[in-house]
Write a structure and sequence with these properties.
By secondary structure, the protein is α/β, with parallel strands linked by helices. It has 2 domains: about 35 residues; about 280 residues, 3-Layer(aba) Sandwich (Adenylosuccinate Synthetase, Chain A, domain 1). About 30% of the residues lie in helices and about 20% in strands. The protein contains 12 helices and 19 strands. Strands 11-9-7-4-12-3-13-17-18-19 form a 10-stranded mixed β-sheet, with helices on both faces. A 3-stranded antiparallel β-sheet has the order 14-16-15, with no helix packed on it. It has a two-stranded antiparallel sheet with strand order 1-2. The radius of gyration is 20 Å and the shape is globular.
């Protein structure tokens, strides 16, 4: 059993023991809301980023959709300013509106009422992924219009904050002033309209497997991030729940996603930042999904990771791109087959953040993952 591995802190051991007990109940088709000792079985998880975005949430969510056979995935967060990349079946998908769980063809795909919607982008992504019949947009979603994008690409937001230029900040500002259009006001979205909070809560109550997909990253939060170099709302786990209408008592796990190194796009502080040339030398040079801008890079920050775990009440972590730090781990799917250097890194992270690293990405494809939950 994973929970008995040597060298683990007691709370990490306890987690794996509890998770294996929960998995036994789930896989034996018992009541998913049953209890086993002090283990309560609930089918709702939240996935958030622990740094500045760009950590591979799309990969983690697409893996969970395929592995756990998600019934419902609902997107939280800001809007189309967040890009998630999904690689599966030889295809690469770059999404900024649709939930990354689309790869599992039986998963219902919802957009929560707290999310801003660019109708053109969402409809195109639904068509490109052949998932139109599975998409539901909450009727209360605010709509990004051309004027919002124009405002975002000019003046202070563009020159000082260096936002993505997708119109989300100006749209959220108008939403606070109660001036925006809502999804229910657009004929082009009529066939997609849904009551996302009702669907999600009914699914949870029926014991369905539900995932709430966060966007951006903890340190881009309007309240907890590097203000003013941040996004236009909170993006921690509690905000993600609010975005989709799920109360905190209905959430079982909060999965916080880190990358094996740190990156961010745009202006704002990045502790221990290295040059682009050094990032290229290390293999850390990346280009942003939405804007096409270079991502600034730095080594993994244990201090930022610890605070992010606190702010999100994370129960487990995922670390992606371990194969970039340790190329010998490319494509590995068993913890035992990771190199000693990679294991040492993972165990140091666990010791610092005091929660288990349950998922370890070993390549770009959705299924290139070490899954320690079972």
């Amino acid at each position: 059993m994973i929970g008995t591995l040597d060298g683990r802190t007691d709370n990490v051991n306890l987690f794996f023991d509890k998770y294996n007990a929960k998995n036994f109940i789930m896989t034996n088709d018992l009541n998913k809301n049953a209890s086993l000792g002090d283990v309560t079985i609930m089918p709702c998880s939240v996935v958030v980023c622990g740094f500045f975005g760009d950590t591979g949430k799309g990969k983690v969510i697409s893996y969970l959709a395929l592995k756990d056979k998600l019934d419902v995935a609902v997107r939280a967060g800001v809007g189309p300013n967040a890009g998630h990349t999904v690689i599966h079946g030889g295809h690469t998908y770059r999404l900024s509106m649709l939930p990354s769980a689309f790869v599992y063809e039986k998963c219902r795909l919802l957009i929560g009422p707290g999310v801003l919607v660019n109708p053109d982008i969402l409809i195109r992504e639904a068509q490109d992924t052949k998932s139109e019949d599975r998409v539901g947009i909450d009727h209360q979603c605010a709509i990004i219009e051309a004027r919002h994008i124009e405002t975002d690409k000019a003046g202070y937001l563009a020159t000082e904050i260096r936002t993505t230029g997708t119109g989300t900040g100006p749209c959220n500002a108008e939403r606070a002033l109660r001036k925006v259009k809502l999804a229910k006001d657009l004929p082009s979205l009529k066939k997609y309209l849904a009551d996302a909070p009702l669907e999600v809560n009914e699914a949870i109550d029926r014991g369905k497997n539900v995932l709430i997909e966060g966007t951006q990253g903890t340190y881009l939060s309007l309240y907890h991030g590097t203000y003013p170099y941040c996004t236009s709302k909170d993006v921690t786990a509690s905000a993600a729940c609010s975005d989709v209408g799920v109360g905190p008592k209905k959430v079982d796990d909060v999965i916080i996603v880190f990358k094996a190194f740190t990156t961010r796009v745009g202006a704002g502080p990045l502790p221990n930042e290295i040059s682009w040339e050094e990032a290229e030398r290390r293999g850390w040079a990346e280009i942003a999904t939405v804007t096409g801008r270079r991502r600034r890079a730095a080594p993994f920050s244990f201090e930022l990771a610890k605070r992010a775990v606190m702010l999100n009440s994370a129960t487990m972590a995922a670390i992606t791109k371990i194969d970039v730090l340790f190329p010998e781990c490319k494509g590995v799917k068993s913890y035992d087959r990771l190199s000693q250097g990679a294991k040492d890194f993972i165990e140091k992270v666990e010791k610092e953040i005091k929660i288990p690293v349950a998922l370890i990405g070993t390549g770009p494809d959705a299924l290139e993952m070490v899954d320690r939950r079972t």
